[in-house]
Specification:
The complex is a heterodimer of chains A (about 325) and B (about 240).
Chain A (H helix, E strand, L loop, with lengths): L1 H28 L3 H26 L8 H18 L3 H23 L5 H19 L10 E2 L17 H22 L2 H11 L1 H6 L4 H27 L1 E2 L1 H5 L1 H14 L6 H20 L6 H16 L10 H7 L1
Antiparallel strand pairs in A: 1-2
Chain B lengths: L5 E10 L2 E7 L2 E2 L4 E5 L6 H9 L6 E6 L2 E2 L5 H7 L1 E3 L12 H9 L6 H14 L15 H14 L4 E5 L7 H16 L3 E5 L3 H7 L2 E6 L2 E6 L1 H6 L1 H8 L1 H6 L1
Parallel strand pairs in B: 4-9, 4-10, 7-8, 8-9
Antiparallel strand pairs in B: 1-2, 1-3, 1-5, 5-6, 10-11
Pfam families (chain B): ABC_tran, BCA_ABC_TP_C
Keywords (chain B): ATP-binding, Nucleotide-binding, Transport
GO cellular component, one term (chain B): plasma membrane
């Protein structure tokens, strides 16, 4: 029994490695910049959703304010680079740490709230931070920040001639987010989080410090999302409050996980692989009409998938799930 | 006798104007099975929650294993060795049976391999071994009760609080439940149980404490307690007490 569990864990790891290796060689054959762009976005949203999933999926604390951490990552990196010439790599780390600390500072009052009240709190706080950035002159206010081009280099994390470096970074980010989830899933934290999600009172009676569990999940989740935000800022090289902190980003982080399977290891990536190309394709093929047909089709597909598989698409693939259901 | 494992000293609990526990002082010795009985609304579950640390008492103190634990939260009391089950079962529904128990085992170890092994042992002990990989939501009610016990046992408690684990079971299920409680005590765990079904509890417990209207009414050997006129009055009214 133990060995079958260990085997399924190892199988996850092998599958992930094969997928990553396959993904790594794809851009060598697919030279189309538009397609490469979609691949970068897919991997990025997969990574973000995977990070969101740690707090909201595993630990069950649904956050619809993660755009805030995304934006803080982007802004920290951009501000440090443009104002002080600090390399984006340090900005990434700094943004991650600021977000993690902020997540815990906000968690301190908010994790006393349960269910819907917590969700509302996350939305409200993210909106407040968005408004603050709108009015913060030093950070460019509503005009945002144009990240100056200083030539292609890994050191400055800027690439104007090719998308490939961005692709590989996004791939690495997705791998890291996946691996962190995989590792935490079979650790004390992973079990504590799932217990907290299912029944906080029972968890507390079994020695789980519910409050600390939520704080841990929030910090890890916020850190990874901020790193993703830093990356996005560099990728688009221009940021303003709406384009990195808008409410839609919080939803876009939640959607792949919800669609793929919330609180599962593979759900967020699977959801992203389906959703993000779909978004881009509907936009470019039928979005030009100006009547929002793309959004109707997109929304319709989401409804169809959620009706057909309310527990997430990942159930179609996972042998462990089937075994458990029997 | 050495110091008791658990003692409540003058414990009061008020909910607004309602007094759920008033001046309750009980003690549970090491290795005992103590039954906490009383009519509905007597304050049994409140006392349980005070001992488990779900809420702090309005007044009074709770001494566990020689230490005052009154101010400690539930999780900390579990770490000190108080395990509990819930009257209304609270399984982790989206997790498998084995994963439910692993949560409990993780109090004593952070090495996953050891927690998993411990969880399997406890499941075998509780007769849930074959159901290890089933989702908790797929268990039948009697199995869920067993899972509650298994989860609590995985935390390696010194004191196990059982909140109506035998209530609502068929006679056969209740009988195996009683055997399980005896087996638990034989491993050296002290048991304090709330129970309604008299004919099941009375042969099982070493001592019974009767609560009524938030106060300790009678305390003693089960055979004496059931004959006590005060107990009969509390349960059945004055008319029947005369006959006894």
């Amino acid at each position: 029994m133990d060995t079958s569990f260990a085997r399924s864990r190892r199988r996850d790891l092998i599958v992930a490695f094969c997928l990553a290796a396959t993904a790594a060689v794809v851009p060598l054959f697919v030279k189309d910049v538009y397609v490469q762009n979609i691949m970068v976005l897919t991997l990025m949203w997969g990574a973000l959703s995977q990070s969101w999933n740690i707090l909201s999926g595993y630990c069950g604390q649904i956050s619809l304010g993660h755009a805030m951490y995304f934006g803080i990552g982007a802004y920290t990196t951009a501000l440090l680079f443009t104002k002080f010439g600090v390399l984006p790599w340090f900005g990434m780390l700094g943004g991650g740490i600021i977000s993690a600390v902020l997540a815990m500072a906000l968690g301190y009052p908010c994790f006393r709230l349960r269910g819907h009240y917590f969700v509302i709190a996350t939305i409200v706080i993210a909106e407040i931070v968005l408004l603050l950035f709108h009015n913060w002159d030093w950070a460019g206010a509503a005009m945002g920040i144009d990240i100056p081009v200083r030539g292609d280099s890994w050191l400055k994390f800027q690439f104007t001639r090719s998308k490939l470096p961005y692709f590989y970074f996004a791939l690495a980010l997705a791998c890291v987010a996946w691996f962190v989830t995989w590792w935490l899933e079979d650790s004390k934290w992973g079990y504590w989080w799932r217990a907290v999600k299912d029944n906080p009172d029972a968890a507390e009676s079994l020695g789980v410090v519910v409050f600390n569990s939520k704080m841990g999940a929030a910090a890890v989740s916020a850190f990874l999302v901020a790193v993703g935000g830093s990356f996005y800022g560099q990728f688009v090289s221009y940021i303003d409050p709406e384009s990195v902190m808008g409410f839609q980003f919080s939803l876009l982080m939640a959607l792949p996980a919800v669609l793929g399977g919330i609180g599962t290891l593979w759900g967020p990536l699977l959801g992203a692989v389906i959703l993000i190309p779909l978004t881009e394709l509907t936009r470019s093929f039928i979005g030009g009409s100006g009547r929002g047909v793309d959004l109707i089709v997109y929304g319709g597909l989401i409804i169809a998938i959620s009706l057909a598989r309310p527990q997430g698409l990942v159930g179609l693939f996972s042998p462990r799930r089937k075994e458990a259901a029997r | 006798m050495t110091t008791p494992l658990l003692e409540t000293r003058g414990v009061w609990q008020r909910f607004g104007g309602l007094i759920a526990n008033s001046d309750v002082s009980i003690s549970v010795g090491r290795g005992e099975i103590v039954g906490l009985i009383g009519p509905n609304g007597a304050g049994k579950s409140t006392l349980f929650n005070l001992i488990a640390g779900v809420l702090p008492p309005t007044q009074g103190s709770i001494i566990f294993d020689g230490e005052d634990v009154t101010a400690l939260p539930a999780a900390e009391r579990c770490q000190r060795g108080i395990g509990r089950t819930f009257q209304v079962v609270k399984s982790f529904e989206t997790m498998t049976v084995i994963d439910n128990v692993i949560v409990g085992a993780l109090v004593r170890t952070t090495v996953m391999r050891n927690a998993r092994r411990k969880a399997h042992e406890v499941l075998e002990f509780c007769g849930l071994g074959p159901r290890a990989n089933v989702l908790a939501s797929d268990l039948v009610p009697s199995e869920k009760r067993r899972l509650e016990v298994a989860r609590a046992l995985a935390t390696e408690p010194k004191l196990l609080l059982l909140d109506e684990v035998l209530t609502g079971l068929t006679p056969v299920e209740a009988k195996t439940g009683v055997e399980l409680v005896r087996k638990v005590r034989d491993t050296g765990v002290t048991v304090l149980m709330v129970e309604h079904v008299m004919e099941i509890v009375m042969p099982l417990v070493d001592r019974a404490v009767v609560l009524d209207l938030g106060k300790v009414l009678v305390e003693g050997k089960p055979a004496d307690v059931v004959r006590d006129p005060k107990v009969i009055t509390a349960y059945l009214g004055d008319r029947h007490a005369v006959g006894a």
